[in-house]
Amino acid sequence: MLRTAFFSAYKILLWAFAIVGLAAAALGVMLAAPLKGLPVLESISQTDRAVDRSDLPAVDRFQARDGTTLGYRHYPAHQPAVPRAAVLVHGSSGSSIAVHALAKALAAVGVETFAPDIRGHGVSGTRGDIGYLGQLEDDMADFVSEIRKTRPDVPLTLLGHSAGGGFVLRVIASQVGAQFERAIMIAPHFGYDAPTSRGTDLRYFDEPQP
User: How far is Cα of residue 192 from the mean position of the Cα atoms in its chain?
Assistant: First the structure.
């Protein structure tokens, strides 16, 4: 009986050492193999590098209802100003810096523009993190209240690019949506499986399309 138990334990130990050895060998191969980076999306990177950000406005700040300090950039309207203002929301991997060119263009045609750093991006809160579902909508409501301190009656237009466009859809469907006269979604991203998604092949974006 003891001999059978001993050999059973011995076999289990051999199998354990074999598994550990195979895992170590596989890990060694993975570490030795050179990493291949993703292809550079030149159509995006070249355009981004061409943007002049030397006149980027400084970050202004306001306090959200949970006490977190959130940031935004303000683009005063060039004269003659039109009787409306815009809130411009960046995409998922960006911040207010990413929409500088568009914000500046809106201001140039007389539209006062506010570009927030959405919580988890830029200077707003902890990077990549929120406290609860619906907090971004609450942040937008607090941001509108901040704008209303100096612009109590100006009609607001909400614009969003990429994931910011998806966020715009959420905002206008929430209670704060009533604070906006109109909403504009620019190349909105509604999710990888949405009908508007063009797939996951990165080559798509740098190839001429029919």
Answer: 14
If you write DSSP's letter for every residue of 47-75 in order, what string do you get?
HHHH---TTPPPEEEEE-TTS-EEEEEEE
Q: Using alpha carbons, select from 107, 134, 129, 122 the residue that is nearest to residue 72.
A: 122
CATH number, residue 104: 3.40.50.1820
Per-residue burial over 31-46, b = 16 or more CB atoms within 10 Å of its CB, e = otherwise:
eeeeeeeeeeeeeeee
Name the residue with higher pLDDT: 33 or 140: 140
Residue 30 counted as domain residue: no
List, for residues 170-202, the tens digit of each pLDDT value: 999 999 999 999 999 999 988 878 877 766 554
Domain residues for 85?
57-186
Q: Which of 187, 188, 184 is nearest to 111 (CA)?
A: 184
Average pLDDT over residues 37-49: 75
Ranges of H-type helices in 68-162:
100-108, 135-148
Number of domains, the chain:
1
pLDDT reported for residue 205:
42
Q: Residue 205: inside a domain, yes or no?
A: no
Backbone phi, psi, residue 113, to 5°: -130, 140
Task: Report how far Cα 155 is from the mean position of its chain's Cα atoms.
Answer: 26
Is there a contact between 110 and 77 (Cβ–Cβ < 8 Å)?
A: yes
What distance in Å separates the CA atoms of residue 73 and residue 117, rounded to the nearest whole number?
Answer: 8
